[in-house]
Amino acid sequence: MAPAGFLSKKRMEDFLKEIGKDALVHVPVLEGNVVVFRPYGQNQTINLERPANAPPKAVIFPQSDTFFTFRFIKDPQDPKKVSVEINPPSDFPEAIIFGCRPCDAKGFKIYDKVYIEANGPDPYYMGRREKTTIITLACPAPSAGCFCTALGGGPAEKDGSDILMTDVGEGFYLEPVTEKGDKLLKAQGVAQLIEDGAKYGQEATKRQKDTHDSVKKPFESINYRDLSRDLFDDDRFWEEMVSKCISCGACTYLCPTCYCFNITDEKTLEQGERLRSWDSCMFKHFTLEASGHNPRPTKFKRYKNRIGHKFLWYPEKYEEIIACCGCGRCIRYCPVSVDISEIVSNLRKTE
Ligand code: SF4
Ligand code: SF4
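Above: the input record for the complex with iron/sulfur cluster. Below: its predicted structure, written as tokens.
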């Protein structure tokens, strides 16, 4: 692995242009007062100061993904005979996510367990995942609602990143984390823009530690065994915790670790496409059965399921990993300020 490098802020645009020669680069852009990931282009205000409102999960797990297109072909000699032509996507583009936060990158590790490791690879997810390089920026300061350190992560966590950047004032200290990241930094045109990072290492470590220490902790740490099953199964607990929820689903759409979906066919008489689209477990119709029965008819049951998924069942199934990275988005952007960190804290066993 190459030693850490340094990229001057003055050369950032050159760096983006260079890495964009062979890949579609997604950058955090300020639009109005929200920060969203967009393909790198002209007339953009790249924002690295605050985390994007929405994580870049759509780069690898698109909000609406075409599995294949299809066409019905009638036999002109015998109209009763119809064949179906199916066209899967031919390839996935090389992509780079630039400037997301370590918690966003960690979100993809949570997806990997489900979409690659557990049941054999999902070709659509894996196709994009393999072709995407993730360059994260260590958080310069925590945002309201962040609680990553309570979940074992941190503002300079490397797990999930291919390259970790730390703002050291006039530029970024660049640490390659994976072979993929190392290869990108060693590519000829890129290497020419990078200086030796040795003299910035100490400053980067100090800044990383300062931010780490300033993240608020609603609890010291958590394991799924720390949660009270009695409270979890007590309807009154959920009624008390989530009475103000309006079931808008924002918390799931903005979450870098939520991955539920629906599959639909959109078609005319002769052709169409099969789509996978994000869905939300906070919606009433998410579990509505054809019989009319709904096993989760109330917002309390739906929120209980959301917490159960992330803090109990996922860790039970996947190496005790909590399926929440503490990014705080569901707290910051919930229109009625439901606070997942407070709810989980209240759900812990007490003496
Ligand atoms: S964002 Fe808030 S109000 Fe909307 S579904 Fe989530 S918890 Fe409920
Ligand atoms: S549940 Fe909330 S805090 Fe946890 S990863 Fe999702 S949006 Fe972030």
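Notes for the reader.
The chain has a mean pLDDT of 96.
The pocket of iron/sulfur cluster (ligand 1) is lined by residues 245-251, 282, 334-336, 338 (CB under 6 Å).
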